[in-house]
Amino acid sequence: MTSYNLRKRTNPVIYSEEAASQLKLTDLAKVVRLPTGTTSVCFSAESVLSAKEILDDPSSSLEKVMSSLRQLSCLTVSKADLEVTGVAFSVRKLRKSEHLEIQRIASNLIDKWKRAVLSEREALKNIAIAQQQQRQSQSQQQQRQQHKREHESASLESVPEQRTLLS
């Protein structure tokens, strides 16, 4: 027997007796699956700064600090973002917290950011190397073309001399 579960603002979902009674997130009509590996979230500097304020405030509750750390761990932050906001200093201080869970999350977050900064630096280095190689190949190509033109002009100048000798 098929039953319908009608929920507000969603399409009806058809259940069969063999199926589990609990909905999966992917069963909902408006859920979009992102490609695997996509875990980053767009953010503004204000959201990072508000999380930083919570982390810096000694009167913040444990739940707020944990929530802010988890929020920051979901973000993909560049080196420039870290420099502008200064949030890495606040997180680094929390690695010495009394609470083990805060220590663990803060340490993991610092390690994640270190890897991101190193990979960003490596990518910039690779781009610089590629640009340098491209400039070198362009200059070599220009030198070859110049040499070819000089050789052609020299050979054209020598051709009339050969004609005069033959005549």
From TrEMBL:
Keywords: Nucleus
Main location: nucleus
UniProt region (Disordered), positions on chain: 129-167
Any Pfam family: Med26
Domain TFIIS N-terminal as annotated: residue spans: 46-120
SMART domains: TFS2N
Coiled coil: none
GO cellular component, one term: nucleus
Keyword Nucleus recorded: yes
UniProt-listed InterPro entries: TFIIS/CRSP70_N_sub (IPR003617), TFIIS/LEDGF_dom_sf (IPR035441), TFIIS_N (IPR017923)
Cell compartments where the protein resides: Nucleus
Stated name of the protein: TFIIS N-terminal domain-containing protein
UniProt source species: Coccomyxa viridis
Higher taxonomy: Eukaryota, Viridiplantae, Chlorophyta, core chlorophytes, Trebouxiophyceae
